[in-house]
Write a structure and sequence with these properties.
The protein has about 600 residues and is mainly alpha-helical. The protein has 25 helices and 6 strands. It has 4 domains: about 270 residues, no CATH class; about 170 residues, no CATH class; about 70 residues; about 70 residues. The longest helix has about 35 residues. The radius of gyration is 33 Å and the shape is elongated.
Length: about 600
């Protein structure tokens, strides 16, 4: 009982240091401040019109990509009036329309860019048709993330098909030059498709493209999502047919050029991968969207999960395990993995992880409950991300551990401690546990304050959803608490080493600087291991990868990169290693303190 009282007094005495008390308050305040700052930052971005990334054809496009194709979001511009229709600058199609109108003006001033005035007139007519199409869409689409924006890409092809059939009486060269200015032309198939056809075939083709265009307009005007899915699936099936035609052409090329067989076969393999991707991922995803009424572009977790599934399918298609013969031909792979066995092990582990992610995504969608990875800005994700707080607290523990005994030596108060009727072990352990309890308490209290603040700022309801595993589902707290406890280990290790140094060296500055330098050095070494071609397998047996255990719970870290490169990092081993080293450090501190001459 007296020992507990001693620890209590030591805690009180430690916190009497204004410096330690201020640092303690700041470290705790961080756990509340970060979610609050993040909340106001997120709200500020929303207020300024920053929107979720749109989807086009099942692919996510970044804002930068969208800016580069002609419609920068949030830019000011004068309203455009076309055929009595006013298009404001915040319309998602404004910049396409403005770009074409401006280009037409430049073309009329610089007529020499075309071979003749007839070609210029044709190009202007084609651009007029494109403007009309975009204006029609702009009347019904007002948001950049509207799924119907996808149809603008599909519709442009139809517009130019219609134009080419209508003007197929024009000399071929003029038509190719005029249309090729705005749209790519496959010269090899141009004549066969648009020129060398009978009047009946031309009329039939015109009827077909007219029907396609009218269907597209109906989808846009009536916001007909089922019809949109039908159009998209038809588009993907047409793409499959196109890819199969390309494969047939490549197979003919092999017969004509046997010496190029290897390169052509690689290209055929890539075309087959694209077909497989469409058949096994793109079309089933579109069908699933229709079944569950998941609208592309909406800022909902289901869209994140579906995009993750498509991405995983693509990754799986490209993570094929080569034969040993193929592996040995690729010198860069031999250099990176050293031998075929390591290569197979790493790639298979990557495939297994991708299949695991695929299963989790599908389980989450089927249960209609989001796994935390599909709510990236939710309370759960932010709480798990805050596990890196353990590194921050570990540095605080180094500060307290390096100061608590060394300051006694430096100030000469150690002799006053030793005149007390207590053994040296009790005196030392009283100091040890006082600072230890302060450090661990800051971590635990800070973590739960952060969890509560995340709930207040981003919704407690997120914590009610489960996290999914291969075998089933677990509540978020069952998922989170073991990770929280695991992250205590580096704090214990950092504190024990700093405390040991403070006893041995008797200098607070040196006792603090050495562990901090080791922490920084460990990060540097892990960076080298993660991004170098040579996997340093010996590092798995040292404390270096484990001084920041929170890195094991984040998807994109140097630890994850090292594991992908074949470094066999075992988290249970790392925890045991740090705990054993912590015990050893404490025993050394006790032994040295027992034998130390305190007379000076």
């Amino acid at each position: 009982m007296s020992f507990l009282k001693q620890i209590k007094n030591e805690i009180r005495n430690t916190l009497k240091s204004k410096f330690i008390l201020i640092i303690t308050i700041l470290v705790l305040a961080t756990s509340i401040a970060l979610p609050v700052i993040s909340f106001f930052t997120t709200r500020n971005l929303d207020d300024h019109g920053v929107r979720p990334l749109p989807m086009m054809g099942g692919v996510i496009y970044s804002t930068m990509a969208i800016d580069s194709i002609g419609y920068p979001m949030g830019s000011d511009g004068e309203p455009i009036i076309v055929d009595g229709v006013t298009i404001q600058s915040d319309n998602p199609l404004y910049w396409q329309i403005k770009g074409i109108i401006d280009e037409k003006e430049y073309m009329e001033m610089d007529k020499e860019r075309f071979s003749s005035s007839e070609v210029l007139d044709l190009a202007l007519l084609a651009m007029d048709e494109e403007v009309k199409f975009y204006v029609h869409l702009a009347n019904h689409i007002s948001n950049h993330t509207d799924y119907r924006m996808d149809l603008s890409w599909l519709g442009v092809d139809i517009i130019y098909d219609k134009f080419l059939y209508e003007y197929n009486h024009v000399p071929k060269e003029e038509l190719i030059e005029a249309v090729g200015y705005r749209k790519g032309i496959d010269v090899d198939t141009f004549e066969e498709k648009y020129i060398n056809i009978t009047p009946e075939q031309r009329l039939a083709a015109l009827d077909e493209v007219e029907e396609k265009l009218n269907t597209l307009y109906r989808v846009v005007e009536s916001n007909d999502f089922p019809k949109y899915i039908e159009l998209r699936i038809d588009q993907e099936k047409a793409q499959i047919d196109n890819l199969k035609e390309q494969i047939a052409l490549q197979e003919e090329l092999i017969i004509q050029n046997p010496s190029q067989e290897e390169g052509i076969n690689d290209y055929i393999m890539e075309l087959n991968r694209q077909i497989e991707m469409i058949e096994t991922s793109t079309i089933p995803t579109l069908e699933y969207r229709l079944e569950k009424n998941i609208i592309p572009g909406e800022n909902i977790w289901q869209n994140t999960a579906l995009m993750s599934i498509e991405h995983i399918h693509m990754e799986l298609l490209h993570n094929r395990i080569m034969t040993e013969e193929e592996f040995n031909r690729e010198t860069y792979l031999v250099h990176e993995y050293k031998n075929y066995q390591n290569y197979v092990k790493v790639i298979q582990a990557r495939i297994d992880e991708l299949n695991k992610e695929l299963l989790i995504a599908q389980k989450s969608l089927d249960a209609d409950k989001p796994d935390m990875k599909y709510v990236p800005n939710g309370a759960r994700n932010r709480t798990v991300d805050f596990l890196s707080y353990s590194t921050f607290v570990a540095l605080f523990a180094v500060l307290v551990g390096g100061w608590i005994m060394a300051s006694e030596f430096q100030q000469g108060t150690i002799r006053l401690l030793l005149i007390r009727p207590k053994t040296r072990t009790k005196i030392l352990m009283g100091k040890f546990f006082a600072a230890f309890i302060i450090s661990i308490s800051i971590y635990v209290v800070g973590s739960f304050l952060n969890l509560a603040t995340n709930g207040v700022c981003f919704g407690f309801s997120d914590f009610a959803y489960p996290n999914y595993t291969v075998s089933g589902e677990v509540s978020f707290f069952v998922y989170y608490l073991p990770k929280l406890l695991a992250c205590i280990t580096p704090i214990i290790f950092a504190y024990s080493v700093a405390f040991m140094l403070s006893v041995i060296i008797k200098n607070a500055a040196v006792s603090i600087i050495i562990p901090i330098a080791c922490f920084v050095g460990s990060s540097i070494v892990m960076g080298i291991v993660a991004f170098s071609n040579k996997a340093l397998t010996w590092i798995a047996y040292t404390p270096i990868p484990f001084v920041d255990i929170s890195a094991f719970f984040s998807p994109y870290t140097t630890v994850g990169q090292a594991i992908q490169r074949g470094v066999a990092l075992s988290l249970p081993y790392g925890i045991m290693l740090l705990l054993v080293l912590s015990i050893v450090s404490t025993i050394i501190a006790i032994t040295v303190f027992h034998r130390k001459d305190i007379t000076n």
